[in-house]
Amino acid sequence: MFNDLSSPASLVASRRSAKPRDLVAPGPDAAQLRRILAAAMRVPDHGKLAPWRLVVIGADRRDAFAALLKQCYRADKPDAAPRELEALDQFAHQAPVLVALLSTPAPASAIPLWEQELSAGAAGMMLLTAAHAEGFAGGWLTGWPSYGPGVAEGLGHPGARIAGYFFLGTPARPLEERPRPDYDAIVSHF
Ligand SMILES: Cc1cc2nc3c(=O)[nH]c(=O)nc-3n(C[C@H](O)[C@H](O)[C@H](O)COP(=O)(O)O)c2cc1C
């Protein structure tokens, strides 16, 4: 069981990530996705700047997204091997639902950049938690598709940083748990 929805506490405690390549249909439908993304916007945000944007890359736009990644990659690495481009193609086509989260801080704001970027991270975590609450699993990936020059612009947000790609769907196989940090190594009391 990858999501224990029996109580709010067990819901949060049972969340874990899926490998995007292992996510299959069903994914969130339009109404579920709207609730997930609306939840992602309900995050602490000093100054009420909403310093993040969400770009839904629909099923009918995966080929176009793959083409964008490959075009930017070739421009960045003219000697790219075919297998590198194939990996980008596979990246773009994983999971039934794909959303890009971008960090779009207001540079002139009195709110420190760090705080605006933390808010983007919170939006990502909220997105995953909300997807879990809707009965789906998610995976947060970055890599070259996040950091490659030109990709954010191609997604409609020049100058933004891509906080990551959120792949949502249903796990094709039971999710593996991973080792979690030792509680006492992390938590101390002042
Ligand atoms: C900002 C960020 C970027 C990440 N990028 C990748 C990535 O590109 N590839 C990868 O395998 N895991 C990446 N991860 C790790 C996974 O999303 C996830 O943390 C890990 O699989 C375990 O997830 P869980 O603790 O939610 O179960 C990233 C995590 C974060 C927070």
CATH topology annotation of the domain at 27-58 and 95-173: NADH Oxidase
Say which CATH homologous superfamily of the domain at 27-58 and 95-173 is assigned: NADH Oxidase
Question: In the CATH hierarchy, what is the architecture of the domain at 27-58 and 95-173 at level 2?
Answer: 3-Layer(aba) Sandwich
Helix content: 40-55%
Low-confidence sequence ranges = none
What compounds sit in this structure? flavin mononucleotide
Radius of gyration: 18 Å
Which structural category do the helix and sheet elements fall into?
alpha+beta
User: How far from one another are the termini?
Assistant: 37 Å
Q: What order do the SSEs take from the amino end to the carboxyl end, as H and E?
A: HEHEHHEHEHHEH
What is the 3D form? globular
Provide the descriptors you would attach to this structure in a database record.
globular, NADH Oxidase, 190 residues, 5-stranded antiparallel β-sheet, alpha+beta
